């Protein structure tokens, strides 16, 4: 199964859809964010999450690469002496929720890679109106009171 996924990933990455400045690493980082943040949503929800990730790359408040944005977190040393993200102190919750960060649903993972490539290639417009933040519609974080709501797309509410 891993061999099949590796071949499919290679085919998707080498389709020529992405611009020269986009690396395979960028695609994988963005695809993981799409997969874990919006994997259960339709295309529009997945694209919106990718839009926020790229909006952050362009904004001075955040790191300036896709992977640095996706993996932005407070870090701590665990009992094994390893640097790990501090639980619930990440920009994207999936990265520090204590669960494995490897995709398990092959179909959703392959779709996430394809969407990541297309968003990085600017195939889709920014559906979030330049939003930098979002949250699920079933929670109300304190920070949302201080930002301007731009749009709700599927199960996420977006802000700038």
* Integer-rounded radius of gyration: 16 Å
CATH class: Mainly Alpha
User: What do we call the CATH topology?
Assistant: Arc Repressor Mutant, subunit A
> Which sequence of strands runs across the widest sheet?
3-5-4
Total strand count, please?
A: 5
**Name given to the CATH architecture:** Orthogonal Bundle
Beta-strand percentage range: 15-25%
Structural class, from secondary structure content?
alpha+beta
How would the global form be characterised?
Answer: globular
What is the CA–CA distance across the termini?
Answer: 41 Å
**How many domains comprise the coordinates?**
1
Helical proportion?
25-40%
How would you describe this structure in keywords?
3-stranded antiparallel sheet; single chain; alpha+beta; globular; Arc Repressor Mutant, subunit A; 160 residues; disordered N terminus
């Amino acid at each position: 199964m891993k061999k099949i996924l590796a071949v499919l990933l290679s085919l998707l990455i080498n389709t020529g859809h992405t611009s020269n400045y986009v690396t395979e690493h960028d695609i994988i980082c963005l695809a993981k964010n799409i997969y874990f943040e919006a994997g259960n949503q339709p295309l529009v929800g997945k694209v919106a999450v990718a839009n926020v990730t790229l909006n952050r790359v362009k904004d001075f408040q955040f790191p300036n690469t896709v992977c640095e944005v996706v993996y932005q977190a407070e870090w701590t040393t665990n009992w094994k002496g390893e640097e790990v993200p501090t639980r619930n102190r990440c920009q994207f919750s999936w990265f520090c929720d204590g669960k494995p960060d490897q995709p398990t649903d092959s179909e959703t993972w392959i779709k996430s890679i394809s969407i990541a490539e297309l968003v990085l290639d600017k195939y889709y417009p920014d559906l979030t109106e330049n939003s930098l933040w979002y949250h699920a519609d079933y929670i109300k974080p304190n920070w949302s009171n201080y930002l301007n709501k731009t749009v709700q797309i599927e199960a996420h509410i977006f802000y700038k």
